[in-house]
Amino acid sequence: MPELPEVETVCRGLKPALVGQEIVKADVRRKDLRRPFPRGLKACLESSRIAGVGRRAKYILVHLDNGFVLVIHLGMSGRIVFQPHSYKPQPHDHFILHLSGGQQVVLNDPRRFGLVDLVPAAELDSHQLFAHLGPEPLSDCFSGPVLAAALQGRKTAIKLAIMDQHIVVGVGNIYASEALFMAGIDPAMPAGEVETKKVEALAAAIKKVLQQAIRAGGSTLRDHRQTNGERGYFQHHFMVYDQEGAPCPRCRRAGRKKARIARIIQGGRSSFYCPRCQI
Ligand SMILES: [Zn+2]
């Protein structure tokens, strides 16, 4: 499933190709994905011009010059691919924008957990998709003190707390494990009991792992666009994620007796951590 860094990478790839383009034709090829395509979608999009491309959590926001925002979520399996003018739709191509420059922007989503919506720009923050969302982790709205305030008094495990979209958006399972390792925090510790200094370190670690992943993803988007293949978004080496049984990279560096990365299940998902240096 695409996580925040992959969606950010997609947005950065879309921006230069989309901004300033007129939507000549919007081809809505079925009536729904996870939920129905909004009414009037085609009419609203056609002959509008794309004014900007942004992101909120894992939603891609395409700002139109008519005051509406086209909202796209990639779900589990969605991909956005550029195709030439002559391209003929393939199976699972559900939504296609034909741009004035001749390119087609194709949303392909075999499992159809994705979503397309249309929201007036002025109502974006209060819309049901966005109203409950916490701060963007890479923005100045998210910091150690902000995170500390959100965690205060919480008994939920810290790993589950930082994956809670009300607290901070876009920290998925992989990045939660990695950030907790970086900050030296036991993923099972009750969120409200993590000491202030470690919460500061955790906020910084969340920013760092996401930025690293965005940098890693940037290079493979080009492959993605060139080949239109099924390649993963990026091949990233993780410190602890999916490393069960491997020697802990930090313990090893410190020259101490090797500890091995352990795996526990939290909220139905695997958490990976070093039992020695995450306390
Ligand atoms: Zn360790």
TrEMBL record:
<keyword id="KW-0863">Zinc-finger</keyword>
<dbReference type="Pfam" id="PF06831">
    <property type="entry name" value="H2TH"/>
</dbReference>
<keyword id="KW-0479">Metal-binding</keyword>
<feature type="active site" description="Schiff-base intermediate with DNA">
    <location>
        <position position="2"/>
    </location>
</feature>
<keyword id="KW-0862">Zinc</keyword>
<dbReference type="InterPro" id="IPR012319">
    <property type="entry name" value="FPG_cat"/>
</dbReference>
<comment type="function">
    <text>Involved in base excision repair of DNA damaged by oxidation or by mutagenic agents. Acts as DNA glycosylase that recognizes and removes damaged bases. Has a preference for oxidized purines, such as 7,8-dihydro-8-oxoguanine (8-oxoG). Has AP (apurinic/apyrimidinic) lyase activity and introduces nicks in the DNA strand. Cleaves the DNA backbone by beta-delta elimination to generate a single-strand break at the site of the removed base with both 3'- and 5'-phosphates.</text>
</comment>
<feature type="binding site">
    <location>
        <position position="111"/>
    </location>
    <ligand>
        <name>DNA</name>
    </ligand>
</feature>
<keyword id="KW-0227">DNA damage</keyword>
<dbReference type="GO" id="GO:0140078">
    <property type="term" value="F:class I DNA-(apurinic or apyrimidinic site) endonuclease activity"/>
</dbReference>
<keyword id="KW-0234">DNA repair</keyword>
<dbReference type="GO" id="GO:0008270">
    <property type="term" value="F:zinc ion binding"/>
</dbReference>
<dbReference type="GO" id="GO:0003684">
    <property type="term" value="F:damaged DNA binding"/>
</dbReference>
<dbReference type="GO" id="GO:0034039">
    <property type="term" value="F:8-oxo-7,8-dihydroguanine DNA N-glycosylase activity"/>
</dbReference>
<feature type="active site" description="Proton donor">
    <location>
        <position position="3"/>
    </location>
</feature>
<dbReference type="InterPro" id="IPR020629">
    <property type="entry name" value="FPG_Glyclase"/>
</dbReference>
<dbReference type="InterPro" id="IPR015886">
    <property type="entry name" value="H2TH_FPG"/>
</dbReference>
<keyword id="KW-0456">Lyase</keyword>
<keyword id="KW-0326">Glycosidase</keyword>
<comment type="similarity">
    <text>Belongs to the FPG family.</text>
</comment>
<feature type="active site" description="Proton donor; for beta-elimination activity">
    <location>
        <position position="58"/>
    </location>
</feature>
<keyword id="KW-0511">Multifunctional enzyme</keyword>
<dbReference type="InterPro" id="IPR035937">
    <property type="entry name" value="FPG_N"/>
</dbReference>
<comment type="subunit">
    <text>Monomer.</text>
</comment>
<feature type="binding site">
    <location>
        <position position="154"/>
    </location>
    <ligand>
        <name>DNA</name>
    </ligand>
</feature>
<dbReference type="GO" id="GO:0006284">
    <property type="term" value="P:base-excision repair"/>
</dbReference>
<protein>
    <recommendedName>
        <fullName>Formamidopyrimidine-DNA glycosylase</fullName>
        <ecNumber>3.2.2.23</ecNumber>
        <ecNumber>4.2.99.18</ecNumber>
    </recommendedName>
</protein>
<dbReference type="InterPro" id="IPR000214">
    <property type="entry name" value="Znf_DNA_glyclase/AP_lyase"/>
</dbReference>
<keyword id="KW-0378">Hydrolase</keyword>
<feature type="binding site">
    <location>
        <position position="92"/>
    </location>
    <ligand>
        <name>DNA</name>
    </ligand>
</feature>
<feature type="active site" description="Proton donor; for delta-elimination activity">
    <location>
        <position position="269"/>
    </location>
</feature>
<dbReference type="Pfam" id="PF01149">
    <property type="entry name" value="Fapy_DNA_glyco"/>
</dbReference>
<keyword id="KW-0238">DNA-binding</keyword>
<feature type="domain" description="FPG-type">
    <location>
        <begin position="239"/>
        <end position="279"/>
    </location>
</feature>
<dbReference type="InterPro" id="IPR010979">
    <property type="entry name" value="Ribosomal_uS13-like_H2TH"/>
</dbReference>
<feature type="domain" description="Formamidopyrimidine-DNA glycosylase catalytic">
    <location>
        <begin position="2"/>
        <end position="114"/>
    </location>
</feature>
